[in-house]
# Entry
Amino acid sequence: MKKIIVLLIFAVIVWAILACSGEDKPESGLSTWVGVYTFEEVDIDTPLFYEITIYEENGEFLAIITIDSRIYPISLEFPFRANIFGNEEWISLTLIEPTGIITTGCRVDDVLISFRREGGNIYTYWGTLFSSVPENIESNGRYFEKVADGIERADISLPRADLSSWVGTYTFKEAVTRWWGDMAKHYEIVIYEENGDYFARIFTERYVFTEGEPPESEVIEAYAKVFGGEEWISLTVIEFLVDGLPFYPPQIDRVIMSFRRENNNIYTYWGMIRSIVWEEHNSNMVLFEKVQD
# Structure
C-alpha cells in the first residue's frame, strides 16, 4: 500500500513539473496577428480585392488568403491557405497548397508575402505573391489594413529582436542536367550586424555548360535588410544586381528568401531567388549550411 501511495505522489510531482514547463514555454507573439486584413487595388480597370484571415488552430497559426478578381458582371475568387512564421514584429506567410491561377508558379512552402508591424501600421513585403499595379509593386508600403481584430496589441512598444545568433556565412551548391546542357549554381550569404541593425550580402553564380559552346554565367549580387527573430528571418532587398546591372523593375524591400531554424538545421524558404533544381530543392528543405560564425 505504501508503495502505491509513493508511486502516486511521484506521478503527481512529475505531472506538475511537466505542466509548469509547458506554461514557461516562450510565446512567439503570433497571437497578436490574429484578425482580418484587406487591400483593394485596380489593375487595368479590373478591381482586385485581397483578404487575409489569420487564425489559430490546435496551437498552430494559419492564414486563408482570398484574392477576388471582380470582373463585371462576375466575381472570381482564388482562396488558398498558408502557414505563418515569425514574431510580434514580423511574419511570413508560406504556401500550403497551390490553388487557382493566382498561385501558378508558386511551390509548396514558398514565401508568398510578409508583414512588418511598426507604430500600429502594417507594412507589406511581397514574395512570390506580388501586385501587378505599378504604384503598388514596391514593398515596404502600407497597403493592407486590419479590419477585424483577434488580439490587438499594436499600440505596445515592440522590443527589437536579437538576431545575433544568425550572424555568419551560409553556403549551398547545386547542379542539374537539362536538355540544353548542364547547369550549376553556387550561393553564399553573409549575415552581419551594423549599428544595431542586421544585413546580408547575397552572392549567387550560375553556369550553363552547352556542348560545343563556351560556358554562360549569371551573377547575382544583392544587399538585404534582415527581419525576424530567433527561429525565422527574412532577407529583403536593399540593392539587387544581375551581372553588375540593377534589376528592372526595381524590387526594393521584396523578400529574397527566408530561413527557419530548428534543431540546428537551417530550412530554406524561396522568395525572389529560386533553385535551379525545382523538382527536388523546394522550400522547407535543409539546403544551406552555416560554414562560418
About this structure: Helices lie at 2-23.
